[in-house]
Amino acid sequence: MDTSEYLPMFLAEAREHLQELNLAVVRIEETPDDRETVDEIFRIAHSLKGMSATMGFAAIASLTHQMEDVFELLRQRSDGLPREAVDVLFECLDTLEAAVEAIAADGSEGFDPEPLVEKLKGLVRERTPEQELEKAGGADLPDLVALRNRGDGTRVAHVVAELSEDALMPSVRAYMLFAALGDLGEIVGSIPAQDGVEQFSGRRIEVWLASECEDEAIERAAASVSDVARVVVHEPAEEQLAAVRAAAAPAAAPARGGDGAGGQHGGGAARAARPSGGSHGQATVRVDAERLDQLMHYMGELVIHRTVVETLAAEADVPGLAQAIQELARSSQALQAMVMQVRMIPVEAVFLRFPRLVRDLSSRLGKEVELRLVGQETELDRTVVDALGDPIVHLVRNALDHGLEPPEEREAAGKPRTGVLEISARHAGGNVIISVSDDGRGIDPAKIARKALERGLISADQVPTVDAARAAELLFTPGFSTAEQATDISGRGVGMDAVATKIRDLGGEVVVASEQGAGMTVQIRLPLTLAIMSALLVEAERQPYAIPLDRVERTLRLEDHTVRSVAGARHLVLRDGVLPLIDASVALAGLDAATEEHHHAVIVRGRDRRLALAVGRLVGQRELVTRPLPDEVSDRAAVSGGAVLSNGDIALIVDCDALTSLGTRPGAAVRASGVGAAAEEPAAAVAADEQAATPAPA
Known about the structure:
This protein has 5 domains: about 5-125, Up-down Bundle (Four Helix Bundle (Hemerythrin (Met), subunit A)); about 135-250, Histidine kinase CheA-like, P2 response regulator-binding domain (Alpha-Beta Plaits); about 290-340; about 345-525, Histidine kinase-like ATPase, C-terminal domain (Heat Shock Protein 90); about 530-685, SH3 Domains (SH3 type barrels, Roll), CATH 2.30.30. It is of the alpha+beta class.
């Protein structure tokens, strides 16, 4: 059978299963008596084994089968698995993840399971008959006395079939054996039970068959099943059946749901990481991500065409056309909202990786950490979720390595031995806010200043001026790190810089809040979607620009306000502060000076401050379908993308964060700044300037 068409589905489901197994093993390590998680582990592992065997990936199936024997230990002991066993399981899961990625790359598993299989075998002790019976998937045992007393001369044959050692998908072979024997009579009992055959992973199958056929015919039917190596048919012995029934009784006794206190879990990571209930039984369809991207593309085209039709309808005098356009707009907006919703997935897809990451890193660093995951149900555009993982990983590693103290240091500071790391997500208007918080050391401005001086990032006379805001800004400088030496965890000075760069590419911003000795919070604000945005359309030098609407505070006429110059840079004097005034023609169009008067200013929120952008004309609010720009364009100007307007013109999307990093060119931009909570220019600095108020024109 050609399984190539099912490969994408296999890869997607295998990645999900491995992620869920990582999370479940972390959870069961913290709460060994969580029977619900134990059963979940068995279901996931069995599904992964069956999928792999069906697709012909024998190495994955073999390793997963042996892992099931270790998982079975969880059912035999109330104190969980020893740490060395958990470490071996995680090593297996890492190997399986690498194998899945190798299959995605070149179609081969690329690993030998035997070394890991031997490690797993070393962890497993011999199973008792009761455990063998339970592992077989339970039993459905007949009452031979009742059958013989029916008076119809029923003959019951006991069929014992053994599968070959290299047989794949034992549960499928058991089902096939039941089907073949069912054609010859009535199956009145079996090990495993017919209704539990999907959990079967052993080699021995027993069937009690009420049939009029001879033993030879029954044996031929059983032997015809693939991978059946040996078949024995004989009369059942009641005393043997009684012994098997006695062995089966204790195996079925333990309740799968635990002791009734299944909701009590010890660790914060376990509590927060468990997916919310109600996910089973929902009607869902797996759709290729590329199709969703195409759907969004066509939805964007529809938005553009709708805008064109609305413009034409405004100029036409056709009875009933305005009403028809309104209905069209209402329907297309509803469709647009639905398409956007289809692309939304819970941020849980990112959060699921962190319990395992925190468990491994805290163990290596010798720190005790409680992980709290909050708001996992918060939804984000799939594209944003896909890109969000690495930045949060950098923040988590930084918090564990630099932020949280070792247990002894925390106790000396009057803190609990166990540090708290919280990752949360929440909606805020048209944005989502991701926060990574710890209750560790916080930012030490003096230490940051010394390290910055050592690395040549600041001069000696600037060291005393480094406050908390400036220290936060330095953390995101390329090459900066407070680590004494680089390790594979952190210390190379690229993590925080990578975070700022990635979030900026996503159209978001990063804000740092810290209290020395009490902890640090890094907050990421991102748009819910990257495809369609609401923007304020403006013009400068007859070039249209789009400013994201969530960054716009208000607009004003420049002639109604005072503009002053300080140290060669222009500032707009307002009642609530003094803002840098940036010329859109210079900052965005790359001109040395404006060739036309700019009559309006847009107050926007940049990376770490508010600023005013001088423009020639305000066009109005628009819904725009964004498109990425070539790197050579976006790197030279403070723009993050483009959008096609209804008249065919291209509007450039203004990157408000980049406006604060363009340099100190007079009349073009404010001084360069980084990430943090820097203060706006004080009014006193402007008042001290001797220049008179200047009119608005550029």
